[in-house]
Amino acid sequence: SLGNPIGLGSLRSIVRPGKKVAIAVDDNTRVTPVKNFLPPMLKYFNLRRKDVIIIVALGTHRKMTDREMVDKYGEILEEYEVINHAFDEKDQLKMVGKLPNNVPIWVNREFLNADVRVSTGNIIPHFTSGWSAGSKTLLPGLAGEETVGWMHYIGAMDLPNALGEVENSSRRVMDAFAK
């Protein structure tokens, strides 16, 4: 899938040495086997350690402990910078626009500053977004508290829930945020 992704040419033509690459990974509340797929992915891209930052897309979850980081990311921690997203620290965020109802779009500054931004995650049914991964890794994963709150508020309108639904209110907000 890295060599021939759907709708793109080879990712090697985009992710090249010398480019600053930010990779969003999910936290320990998700079952994604990050420590299994991320090392081969990084090897495939042949990136220098200093050109990569891995950001734990916590959304508004608490920061992961050192033990949780080792369990979830394994050997990656020894070679690459892995940081927890800070949804509540404005100096770590950048406002890039507004959502409906004038809600500010706050995004992780490190992710925005990268030349190439990669989002990872598993694809399973989710009660608010219909499905996990994709734009959900970015919102709520790498968004500010106010932005995440609005997305969850919108998701509460899909009653009883959006589990497994491709089209739903939260997903529309997430996809607009990602764009």
Question: Notable features of this structure?
Answer:
alpha/beta, about 180 residues, single chain, globular, two-stranded antiparallel sheet
Structure report:
The protein is an alpha/beta fold and 179 residues long. It is 30% helix and 21% strand. It has helices spanning 34-45, 66-73, 76-79, 109-113, 135-138, 145-155, 169-178; strands at 21-26, 52-57, 81-84, 93-99, 103-108, 116-119, 125-126, 130-131. The chain has a four-stranded parallel beta sheet. Strands 4-5 form a two-stranded antiparallel sheet. Helix 6 packs antiparallel against helix 7 (169-178). The longest helix is centred in the N-terminal third of the chain and has 12 residues, at 34-45. The model has no long low-confidence stretch (mean pLDDT 89).
What's the SSE blueprint?
Layout: E1 21-26, H1 34-45, E2 52-57, H2 66-73, H3 76-79, E3 81-84, E4 93-99, E5 103-108, H4 109-113, E6 116-119, E7 125-126, E8 130-131, H5 135-138, H6 145-155, H7 169-178
Parallel strand pairs: 1-2, 1-6, 2-3
Antiparallel strand pairs: 4-5, 7-8
Q: If you average the pLDDT, what whole number results?
A: 89
Strand order of the largest sheet: 3-2-1-6
Element string (H = helix, E = strand): EHEHHEEEHEEEHHH
Please tally the helical runs, counting DSSP H or I stretches of 4 or more residues.
7
Global geometry: globular
Largest sheet, in brief, is: 4 strands, parallel
Low-confidence residue ranges: none
End-to-end distance: 22 Å
Radius of gyration: 16 Å
Total strand segments: 8
Helical content band: 25-40%
* SSE class: alpha/beta
Relative strand content? 15-25%
